[in-house]
Amino acid sequence: MIELSIQLLLYIIAILLGFCGVAMIYLIYQKRNEEKKNHEMEKYIQNTKILWQGYFLGDDQFAVTLIPKNKYQILAVEHIFLSYLRNISNPIIQQKIYTFTQMYLKEYYQNELKSRNWSRKMNAMYRIADFHIQELIGTCEVSIKHKHSIEVFQLLKIYSILEKEKFIQEILLCNYSFSESEYKKLFSYLEVEMLQRLMEKIENLQQAAQYALIDTIAAKGSMAVIEGLEELLVSEDTEIRIRTLRGLERLGVIRNLETYIPFVNSSIWEERLMVAKLFKYAPLTYTAEHLEKLLQDSNWWVRSQAASTIIEDPRGYQRLKEFIATTNDQYAIDMANEVLEKRMRAV
Amino acid sequence: MIILDYLMWFFGGLIIIYMLLVIVTYGLMFFFALLKLRKEYRLDQTEMDETYIDAFYSKPVSVIIPAYNEEVGIVDSIHSLLSLHYPEFEIIMVNDGSTDRTQEIVIEQFQMKKIEKVIKMEIPASPIIQIYQSQIHPNCFLVEKENGGKADALNVGINVAKYPYFCSVDGDSILESTSLLRLMKPIALSDGEVIAAGGNVQIANGMNMQLGSILETNVSKNYLVTMQIIEYFRSFLIGRITLSKFNLVLIISGAFSVFSKKWVVEAGGYTKSMIGEDMELVVKLHRYIRKKKEKKRIEFVENPVCWTEAPETMAVLRRQRRRWHQGLLESLWNHKTMTLNPRYGGIGLLSFPYFWLVEGLGPIIELGGYIYIVCAFFLGDIYYEIAILLLLTFVLYGVVFSMMAVLFEAWSKNKTFKVADLIRMMLLSFTEIFWYRPITLIWRCEGLLNFLVRRREWGKMDRKGISSKEQESI
Predict the structure, then answer these.
(1) Residue B173 has what DSSP assignment?
(2) Which pLDDT value is given to residue B385?
(3) Which of A326, B71, B188, B364 is the most exposed place for a label (fewest CB within 10 A)?
(4) Closest Cα in chain B, distance from residue A32 (Å)
(5) Do B388 and A120 touch (CB under 8 A)?
(6) For residue A119, what are the CA distances in angstroms to A132, A155, B52, B191, B323?
């Protein structure tokens, strides 16, 4: 029995060590390939960077030598294009990149999408979104058979960039669930008008999508959305109300102060915090009474924000001094002193 | 003689069964880790970095560096943090009563000025003496406090932190520029389901670094350090990836991890009296999650790397391992009621038994195995064969898994590894069971002994230095 076990273990160890040896040789071979690839890419970039620069930034004509001839050169072109797209926002350059990829790289990405290797397929989908290769959307749809959430997210991202109507249809179907950050990313590619269309059907969206939509629409900074947002202030969902207040604060406009007064007495501290923040967009003459109440709030963050809002007003310094002299609330006094000290230091 | 025979058979069988169980467990963990890494092999990671670099999609983070006598590495460490690619973060360096020039150097280098700041003491901690703010990097703060230990310094840092997530980084650690972004990815993408995440800690000895940036990755020429590198690969890549997949992680390194401030505050923050404060916090969080019946996760993320300095001498390594093992056992003992307790799900039924048997008590059994082999050669006869069988399990466990971990790491970091380093580490893996493994087992058994006699090594550990490097040099 023991002899058999020793023999068995010896076999196992020999096989595993053999595997390690083969794997090491394979890795060394791979490393050489990697170095060759890097060398080829570097060579292509060095040889063509002036030509690309002239083509993108100058008036130079497109040179045939720029067309990549093998996989390494395609990877080098990808590298150059991504550097331009991520660092320079210029519609002319973007269009040149999209046209080039459409003509010379489309076939390559089509083959990559058919690959059985998940990473290669995903990388191809990333590039389709980056280089706006609309014609490959159909191939993307076919290639994602397993409906892995990362693949679906990438497909929806491609829709949000290239087929917005389809994106709206898909997102309203609520077949998939993503995180708020992911929804934000997806919504960020849509124009304000599209977002407003989604706002009209906000209750049909998944909860994370609702929150992300409010945040995104506010971040777009369009005044056209204020009315739509104000309507959400009566929502029964606390988080929606808080997000809406935050969104309105980000937009930096108070149309009607009365709309916000009830939040000063809200039982939810986040609402009181947001309203304390929002009040910096109204003259202190109208908000001082409410802000002083918030300065004596039971919550530290609310007190801190109320003090910061007061000091931002030109008459805030004096108002805080007066407040310190008249109140007995030690916490509020400490907070007021902190912002006053900060102001002194800034001056 | 018959009694001796029975004893030899009994212990021989016990140790072999134990070793086979450990090998099967490691084999399964290795398999799951391989599946995960294979899937994402060559996936363009920069795509994700670009996607979430905007503050709109990410969450702000307070980076806390507890520092005690870190005058040598603190400036590089802060520089590496300042060069992080992350949209919104603040750096809070907590000087835990350093007796060297740590504070002066930081004040001078980053042009720190005293500020007044009202701090909400959400976790009980030592009082703050003074807070400073950098004039050149306004998001960089220095908190001066009396010496109270690493856990206390971290608790002070949490109280000062203004963002909903905090990242603890050791004063002698260097982060890669994308590390924080990648560590925060599971948190950003889970809508709060992931409440803590730990990154991959690797050894920096031998690296070419300047102003907190890594210029060249080299493997140290010191054999002791190289063995630790192999050990780190094995532990981080094989163990933690699989444990994380099933939400069974009990240890995320204090050298580089992110936590939700809200959850940590509710769980009571770091425990001052424990040696392994990082593990203790993770176990406390798991316990609190189950108590609140919330669906939360603690994850290990293999991409983000934090570089840290490893001990280069036997004496320093001995103290480190002794302390780590004592810390592990203290935490397990402190929460012993979670062991095999179905109320704690996988943590109670799988993690705790695994950590007790493999990590906690494993050194005694393994060391017993080594002693058994020596005895068996003296006794001869049938025991030779048992000893050979045992030795082969050690080869399988020590040599083969180490080699596979090295290969695994080289494969996943295809672009950066050097062929000469790979060959050197492979050859060194062969020697592990003959020197490194037995000596670390003895040190870990010393840790176990210290735990049993509640030894605190007053006079050494009592100084409560918070940097591992410093503690080891005490």
Answers:
(1) -
(2) 82
(3) A326
(4) 9
(5) no
(6) 20, 15, 19, 25, 42
Task: Check pLDDT > 80 for residue B53.
Answer: no
Q: Which residues of A touch B426 (CB under 8 A)?
A: 20, 24
DSSP code string of B378-427: HH-THHHHHHHHHHHHHIIIIIIHHHHHHHHHHHHTTTT--HHHHHHHHH
Taking contacts as CB-CB distances below 8 angstroms, the residues of chain A near B57 are 181, 184-185
Chain A residue numbers with beta carbons less than 8 Å from the beta carbon of B40 are: 119
Pairing of strands B61-67, B89-96: parallel
Q: What is chain A's alpha carbon radius of gyration, rounded to the nearest angstrom? A: 29
Contact state of B407 with A24 under an 8 Å Cβ cutoff: yes
Q: Is B316 on the interface with A (CB under 8 A)?
A: no
Mean pLDDT confidence for A186-215? 93
Which of chain B's residues have a Cβ under 8 Å away from the Cβ of A71?
Answer: none
Question: Where would I find the beta strands (DSSP E) of B72-170?
Answer: 89-96, 112-115, 128-134, 140-145, 165-169
Q: What are phi and psi of A297, to 5 degrees?
A: -65, 160
**Predicted ipTM > 0.90:** no
Cα–Cα separations (whole angstroms), residue B361 to A200, B10, B448, B451, B453: 62, 18, 8, 12, 16
Q: How many CB atoms within 10 Å of residue A63?
A: 12
In angstroms, rounded to a whole number, what is the distance separating the alpha carbons of residues A250 and A219?
7
Q: Mutate which of B116, B131, B262, B394 to test chain A, going by most A C-beta atoms within 10 A?
A: B116
Residue A20 to residue B385, Cβ atoms within 8 A: no
Pair of tokens at residue A169: 């249809």
Q: Domain limits of chain B?
A: 2-38+352-473, 60-314
Overall average pLDDT of the A235-263 stretch: 93
The minimum CA-CA distance between B301 and chain A, rounded to whole Å, is 17
CA A316 to chain centroid, in Å, comes to: 36
Helix (H) or strand (E) holding A294: helix A284-295
Q: Which CATH number fits domain B60-314: 3.90.920.20, 3.90.550.10, 3.10.450.320, 3.40.50.20?
A: 3.90.550.10
- Residue A293 CA to residue B115 CA, distance in Å, equals 27
What would the two tokens of residue B257 be? 């991890």
Contacts of residue B404 in chain A, CB cutoff 8 Å?
16, 20
B136 touches chain A (CB under 8 A): no
Name the pTM for this structure: 0.85
Report whether B80 contacts B304 (CB < 8 A). Answer: no
Under an 8 A CB cutoff, do B385 and A6 touch?
A: yes
Task: From chain B, pick out residues whose CB is under 8 angstroms from the CB of A9.
Answer: 389, 392-393, 396
Q: Are A157 and A188 in contact (CB under 8 A)?
A: no
pLDDT tens digits, one per residue of B220-258:
889 999 999 999 988 877 778 899 999 999 999 888 999
HSE-up of residue B228 (Cα within 13 Å, Cβ side): 25
A147: Cβ–Cβ under 8 A, 6 or more apart, which residues? none
